[in-house]
Amino acid sequence: MTDKYCVFGNPIGHSKSPVIHAAFARQTGEDIEYKAILASLEGFADAVDAFIAAGGRGANVTVPFKQEAFQLVTRLTARAELAGAANTLLFDGDEVIGDNTDGVGLIRDITVNLAQPITGKRVLLLGAGGAARGVIGPLLDERPSALVISNRTESKTHVLVDHFTHLGPVSGCDLPDLAGKTFDIVINATSASLHGTMPALPEGIFAPGSLAYKMMYGLGDTPYRIFAREQGAAVISEGLGMLLEQAAESFYVWRGVRPGIAPVMELLQKA
Ligand code: ATR
């Protein structure tokens, strides 16, 4: 019987996950179907229950439900527990297991696919939502010289700094106070691009040779991409590699088979 998976989000029309997982299933011969489900902002838990009742085996969770997903599970993997956010759910009998594959996906894309070491680098992380939470522990594992978190709503920055401070050199900085500071890697983990905008960054934050990374994949000239290019970032990534890597890791969690991302990247780039 075909096993059912899905991604929950709001909005969800932008999601490439159904195309990616269909391609992974073809590549690995796994018999799965995967669809995108728009959950109402108050209706995430009900949507998960309905999907489980309909025979769902697992799910991805995207903006803005990753922290709510963390709350509703019955069990967490260590990496989801550290993150305080879940992007991958596994339904096993009465258990709802929460995992987080965002961090693995980001680190693999930056260090392997883009061949940019994080060790010893000054890293700026923009955003303090579920997506940001998922990557802070794995970023600190790479031993950057500094990890600065900056978010539109300042109080959320401080919550994250307090939560992760025991793991490495993490600090917070309000967006206007970034003026005069430079970074080797600037990771945009906000959902601003969904609204066609970007965090209000001061000029001059990209060090020579720096990497500008956007975690929420979207094609074309987004405001962040344009800003990073104008400000002299040497390498700019729209996050397609992370999207594919986190999806491959979720697929592995569900099916025990790890698909290769290269053919799917080619497929999406052509599309
Ligand atoms: P996700 O799971 O993708 O992280 P989220 O938990 O809703 O989604 O978090 C969205 C993040 O994007 C938040 O850090 C949010 O900032 P606030 O905490 O101030 O809300 C950030 N964000 C969204 N739109 C933004 C914008 N236009 N400018 C700057 N930051 C924005």
Which descriptors would you attach to this protein?
Rossmann fold, 271 residues, 23% strand, six-stranded mixed sheet, 2 domains, alpha/beta, binds 2'-monophosphoadenosine-5'-diphosphate, six-stranded parallel sheet
Overview of this protein structure:
It is a single chain. The chain has 271 residues and is α/β, with parallel strands linked by helices. It has two domains: 3-100 and 242-270, Leucine Dehydrogenase, chain A, domain 1 (Rossmann fold); 103-238, Rossmann fold (3-Layer(aba) Sandwich), CATH 3.40.50.720. It contains ten helices and twelve strands. It has helices at residues 17-28, 44-53, 66-72, 78-83, 102-113, 130-141, 154-164, 223-230, 240-255, 262-270; strands spanning 3-9, 32-38, 56-61, 75-76, 88-92, 95-99, 122-126, 146-150, 170-172, 183-188, 206-214, 235-237. The strands form two sheets. Strands 2-1-3-5-6-4 form a six-stranded mixed β-sheet, sandwiched between helices. Strands 9-8-7-10-11-12 form a six-stranded parallel β-sheet, with helices on both faces. A hairpin with a 2-residue loop joins strand 5 and strand 6. Helix 1 crosses helix 9 and helix 5 crosses helix 6 (130-141). The longest helix has 16 residues, at 240-255. It is globular and about 60 Å long. 2'-monophosphoadenosine-5'-diphosphate binds next to helix 6. 2'-monophosphoadenosine-5'-diphosphate binds at residues 63-64, 66, 127-132, 151-153, 156, 190-192, 195, 197, 199.
